[in-house]
Amino acid sequence: MAETHPPYSSFKKLSSFFNGITAVSGVVLIGLGFYVKFRGAALTRVLGLSHAHLHHVGYLCLVLGCVTVLLSFTGWYGVTKENRGTLLFCSLFMIFILIMEIGVTSVVLGFLPTVQDMGLEHNVVTLRTNYKGFNEPDDYSTDWNSVMEKLKCCGVKNYTDFSGSSFEMMTGHAYPRSCCKSIQTVACDGHNVSTDIIHQEGCLPKLLEITKTQSFNLSGGSLGAAVIQA
């Protein structure tokens, strides 16, 4: 029986771990791509982001996500079968993907703050003027409710964006039910602004935070996999 060397066994486990991280990051990218593709119109209306830019980002996320998942499974196969040719191919391709990801990450992280600075006040004014409420049937209110529930956020900058809004004047509430962590709770009364009751963070900062986190996770996982396999 062939002897198993502890250092090589540790290498295989570490490589599999990084390949797993890379695969998960790829799946997240694919999910983000589908979300942007099918929910891009809602984000466009509520956050004022360019519809064309969103579609480009969505397709890019889908392509990078699929390639990353494929490479991670190929790398896992190469480690399991101890195939150096497969590992070398995966390493070179992973480095190429990593360079692309760094470039895309730099563009995205540089582009989103510009969008935030340019459209922030306009989005707040539009929200205060056009948002009607949680159960209102108009597209603008429906889109906002959907975004706030899915991203777990409230308003553009934060929950105070509803102060002085048409919504507050009509209902007397400081925030809509879609800002609540649990919509069914009695404490979600439109007045209790405790962090235990509502999501206080705004949707635009939350979107930036999610984008940054996933960009760093994806780049880190790919870098780790490429280094371990090299």
Structural class: mainly alpha
Oligomer: single chain
Fill in the CATH topology of the largest domain. Answer: Cd81 Antigen, Extracellular Domain, Chain: A
Order of helices and strands: HHHHHH
The CATH superfamily of the largest domain turns out to be: Tetraspanin
Give the second-level CATH assignment, the architecture of the largest domain: Orthogonal Bundle
How would a textbook summarize the main sheet? none
What is the count of structural domains?
2
**Mind telling me the C-alpha Rg?**
22 Å
Describe the protein:
The mean pLDDT is 74. The longest helix has 47 residues, at 84-130. The chain has two domains: 11-82; 93-229, Tetraspanin (Cd81 Antigen, Extracellular Domain, Chain: A, Orthogonal Bundle). It has helices at residues 6-47, 51-81, 84-130, 139-151, 166-171, 203-229. The chain is elongated, with a radius of gyration of 22 Å. The chain is mainly α. It has six helices and no strands.
